[in-house]
Hints:
Blueprint: H1 13-16, H2 18-36, H3 39-46, E1 47-48, E2 51-52, H4 58-81, H5 95-118, H6 159-162, H7 166-171, H8 176-200, H9 205-240, H10 242-290
Antiparallel strand pairs: 1-2
Helix pairs in contact: 2-9, 4-8, 5-9, 8-9
Amino acid sequence: MPSQSLSDAPPSPLRRHAHLCWTLAALAGVLAxxxxxxxxxxxxxxxxxxxxxxxxxxxxxxVLHEGARRLGYLLLLLLTLGLWWPKGFxxxxxxxxxxxxxxxxxxxxxxxxxxxxxxxxxxxxxxxQFGGVARHVSHWALGVRDGGGGRCxxxxxxxxxxxFLGGYFALRHQLPGVARWWLAGALLAxxxxxxxxxxxGAHFMSHTLWTGWLCWSTxxxxxxxxxxxxxxxxxxxxxxxxxxxxxxxxxxxxxAAPVGRSRADSATGETGETGATGETGATGxxxxxxx
Length: 291
């Protein structure tokens, strides 16, 4: 038997579960940042008791906030139109992958928005340390009010970049090179937009990191669900395909063949017995005539 080539060898367990490993490693990193309590220390670099000097800075507000938000809406619109009229690399994607790309993005945005609406955590510029009235309360203190407006965790604006992380999972099946570039672009966009809000005092760094992890995990889970659906559809198609019917018919014919051969052998035996009886009778008659 020829030896199995390296390219045909099954992937190692670590390679098969690479995305799970990355997800858990990122979660550990975000939890480590939370445990270190560095949010306030980093916010103090850009803010003081008088507030945040860059809160109304033109480039941060008009380009990296308003402009980036409009660009995110435009990209969502293009992905939606690409379901029926794909352009560029979308034309090289299967329709199911284009759907996965859009749905994972929308689910990530919905998840971040829902979490924000339920959060009691206020923004840095609302805290007394930076000229506001609220006190600093960890976002892990669920239900504890800090005296501010709340609804600031996780970072909503960073999701305008991170939400597109799910596109990496949809692209990697047929366009792995494009998928890597897409992943790098979504990560960079999310970090830049989250960093801009950090400079303005709108969010802590932990808000941005949690948004990135939630969006990545949403994209990964969507990919797992899409893969399960593909396997289920393939199994159903295989059970009802013409090839499957042909194999069933061939199996039925193979089962019927021994029965047919048995009947033929039986008929042949009966013919032989009849012939032998006739020959015996003829011999007797001849003997009688000779006598």
